[in-house]
Design brief:
Chain lengths: 233, 191, 384
């Protein structure tokens, strides 16, 4: 006959077992599973607390950033990849991006954004802007300590704050950055090969045309009033 | 996506219904809708015991320009207005026989959007028809408790209609467009 | 509530109650309530402690998802589907991708199919453990089973973060496949998790399933018959707890579910205890599917050749999946442009709430909380 309350005791035995085991859990993964705050992964290991567990993985995405190919202290705007095509602004689901194109003194469109604002209180980190960008200019950052005291300006991240170098991208998302670089190099090589083939074809066509013109000129008789007329060949 | 034979018995039994091949749906007039629904639940007629989805769709009146050739050979462009409609779409399945879907549509004119409620036949239509009433404004006759579902009771207007205009009292938060943009342009710090 | 002609001017109105209902206490449970699983209100009329009338009030989380989707391209709605049933973002994604793929007929590569099944079954594990945890929270076991469940859920969310970049709002599925492949080592980590999960389920069952308090409070409470459930459009574990064998993974066999052998647990009594046990059993079946999928997954691409600009021809489709809450369907009307003409989500949680009043009437108000917990609703889906 089953003792009334035995089910409850069984349950309590489970919790008691978990409680006692937590003192002897070697790797502290099963019974003490609360993680510490995600310290910045680029701090040296001896400065992290003993149970620090970086929960930011190499694919974590938080808010976007603009890429530039400058190194060191070069001006990021010199090598910014964004050409202000505004595709990301159109496709962004919560409409958090605002772009203004740059025009030079004559009114001609220079392929750069003069304003590129992302309102990170609206951004939902969905990564659609990254997917639709045809120039690999915008990718996701994993920086998450972005809180500040200014409600409107502080959460409106402007172009210069969004610009990060490709090296930084390699540091936070190494595999993705490498894939992207490989793909860009491949596409560039394909484009150059195509261009070279087109140039070669054009050159060949020009040479052929020049030859033909030379032939025609040679075949035509040279009209000399003093010389007797020779029959054309 | 209705399996080919599912709608044919209905067309035979109820000649007033019509099969819309483009939408692959049975258009059922409102006055016989409940009879058709009751008929469909019977085991002899397909045993559609499960109404999965009830949706409203709003089609605005559309202007269609057609080029026609007259008797004397000249071309003419005729403009006719295709009337809009508020449609209620039902997706029916049979759980016992694992068939479906059979798509029923009740088409109502936008000026007088009234449809027959199929809640007495399938209880799953109860909340969904309330939602169609709330968001599209279609009145369901025979519904036990027709009131707004998602919007609050005193709300006026039907938000999902294509010609719905939001009232000017809408609260919005500043984003890089609009007001924030204006202030940014004038160089003011937003406070 | 019976409404007579209001005798007071707006913004408030006076209503007369029926004579029979005079003297009854009306309690508004919610929207701010720890046990209503979201912003959800129930107007309950009580005779002492027995529920006489219960009217659910929805709309507190209505975000007009359907109208927003009419104004943006098909791909841009995908992140919003994550936020419908915010516990099961992968299942929502799959339902939408399934419906859209019916519009353009893009074949999905094999590896993507297997990964989709793996993600969906992991989501089912996440949902059912969380549900059992919250259900027991409502019963009064404040925290212990919930945190045991969350321990496992955290491991699965870590896997989701490694694969897609985000823990909950994954935005991982695309029309024709997945956004990207899983990183190296992910499959091994998943195998390790799936290998250790039965032990956790055993511990969970030992903790809960013979507990006399749970048995007394959930058996014979909120009994739903099979016929009633079918007519009310109930789907998912709640339907199967009432004894009806209708699981979309078997009926529609979408994706590659026909390749996996798993059973569909059915309940006998249709009460809250059955609904709770069904979820424990379904977790074990999900583990079977996961083992098979992880064993058979091939190499290959994860993205089919979807058109660069998603512009389907005019058509109407209805695509549905077995989400952990029930049948999640998407009804799309395309009109040849890049934006859908009509985008409708068939929410299982809302439809499952059709019978809430019938289940609760006659029981005490404490049972109303238990019944609501066993229905398993997420307000993001109910209100969209």
């Amino acid at each position: 006959m089953k003792l009334l309350g035995s089910g409850i005791f069984k349950g309590m035995a489970v919790t008691l077992e978990n409680f006692v085991r937590s003192y002897f859990d070697r790797d502290r993964k099963h019974h003490l599973f609360t993680k510490e705050y995600a310290w910045k992964s680029d701090a040296p290991a001896d400065q992290l607390p003993a149970r620090a567990d970086t929960t930011v993985t190499t694919r974590s995405r938080n808010f976007p950033m603009l890429l530039h190919d400058g190194k060191g202290s070069e001006d990021p705007m010199a090598s910014i990849r964004c050409v202000a095509c505004q595709i990301c602004e159109r496709e962004c689901p919560p409409q958090c991006i605002f772009i203004e194109k740059e025009y030079d003194a004559n009114g001609k469109f220079v392929k750069r954004p003069v304003i590129f604002d992302i309102d990170i209180s609206v951004c939902m980190s969905c990564q659609i802007c990254v997917e639709v960008c045809p120039f690999d200019a915008i990718v996701m950052n994993s920086e998450f300590e972005l809180s500040n005291n200014d409600r409107f300006n502080g959460l409106l991240v402007r172009r210069d704050a969004l610009l990060k170098s490709n090296d930084y991208y390699h540091r936070i998302h190494p595999e993705e950055a490498q894939e992207r670089d490989d793909r860009m190099a491949r596409e560039k090589a394909e484009k150059e090969a195509k261009q070279a083939a087109a140039d070669a074809a054009k050159k060949k066509a020009a040479e052929l045309a020049a030859e033909k013109a030379a032939e025609l000129a040679a075949a035509k008789p040279k009209v000399d009033p003093a010389a007797p007329t020779a029959t054309p060949q | 996506m209705t399996s080919p034979a599912l709608h044919e018995p209905v067309l035979q039994q109820f000649p007033a219904t019509r099969w819309d091949a483009a939408a692959r749906a049975l258009i059922v007039p409102a006055d016989i809708a409940r009879a058709v629904a009751q008929w469909l639940t019977q085991p002899a007629n397909g045993e559609f015991d499960y109404c999965s989805n009830v949706t409203g769709v709003d089609f605005l009146p559309k202007e269609i320009k057609e080029k026609t050739k007259n008797a004397d050979g000249t071309e003419e462009t005729l403009t006719r207005t295709e009337p809009g409609s508020l449609q209620v779409v039902y997706h029916l399945y049979s759980m016992r026989r694992r068939t479906g879907p059979l798509v029923l549509k009740q088409v109502a004119p936008r000026e007088k959007p009234v449809a027959a409620s199929l809640t007495p036949v399938w209880r799953s239509c109860e909340l969904q028809e309330r939602e169609v009433f709330d968001l599209f404004g279609v009145r369901f006759e025979g519904h036990p408790d027709l009131r707004r579902l998602l919007m609050w009771d005193e709300f006026e207007g039907f938000p999902m209609r294509r010609d719905y205009v939001e009232p000017a009292d809408y609260e919005w938060e500043p984003t890089p467009h609009g007001e924030v943009l204006e202030k940014h342009r004038r160089g003011k710090v937003i406070s | 509530m019976s409404t007579a002609a209001p005798i007071a001017a707006p913004p408030y109105k006076l209503v007369r109650h029926d004579e029979a209902e005079a003297g009854l206490l009306e309690v508004s449970m919610g929207p701010h309530h720890p046990s209503t699983h979201g912003v959800f209100r129930m107007d309950v009329k009580l005779d002492g402690e027995t529920v006489v009338r219960l009217k659910p009030v929805f709309g507190y989380l209505h975000r007009n998802h359907e109208k927003l989707a009419e104004g943006m391209s098909y791909l841009s709605s995908m992140p919003f589907t994550d936020r419908l049933d915010y516990f099961n973002s992968m299942a929502n994604n799959w339902a939408y991708a399934l419906a859209a793929e019916k519009l353009v007929d893009v074949p999905v590569p094999e590896r993507a199919q297997y990964l989709r099944v793996i993600m969906a079954e992991l989501t089912r594990l996440v949902n059912h453990t969380s549900l059992v945890g919250f259900f027991l929270n409502d019963l009064g076991a404040l925290g212990t089973p919930l945190l045991y469940a969350f321990r496992e859920r955290e491991r699965i969310l870590d896997l989701f973060e490694q694969a897609s970049g985000a823990r909950m709002m994954c935005n991982y599925f695309r029309f024709g496949g997945l956004r990207c492949d899983v990183p190296a080592g992910w499959l091994d980590r998943t195998r390790a998790l799936v290998g250790g999960f039965p032990k956790f389920l055993d511990e969970f069952e030992k903790l809960l399933c013979e507990n006399e308090i749970i048995l007394a409070r959930t058996q014979h409470v909120g009994v739903l018959s099979g016929a009633q459930a079918i007519n009310a459009g109930i789907t998912g574990p709640m339907l199967r707890a009432s004894g009806v064998n209708y699981d979309l993974r078997k009926v529609d066999a979408y994706g590659i579910y026909d390749r996996f052998s798993f059973r569909v647990p059915l309940g006998a009594a249709g009460d809250c205890y059955d609904r709770f046990m069904i979820r424990m059993l379904e977790m074990r079946e999900s583990l079977k599917i996961l083992e098979q999928a992880l064993r058979d997954i091939p190499e290959g691409p994860v993205m089919g050749n979807a058109p660069r600009v998603f512009k389907p021809a005019a058509a109407e489709v209805y695509g549905r999946v077995e989400s952990p809450k029930g049948e999640l369907g998407f009804y799309l009307i395309a009109d040849g442009t890049t934006k859908p003409y009509r985008y409708r989500v068939r929410p299982p949680s809302l439809i499952n709430l059709t019978v809430l009043e019938d289940l609760c009437v006659g029981h005490s108000i404490a049972d109303a909380v238990v019944i609501l917990g066993s229905i398993d609703i997420v307000l993001g889906e109910v209100d969209r």
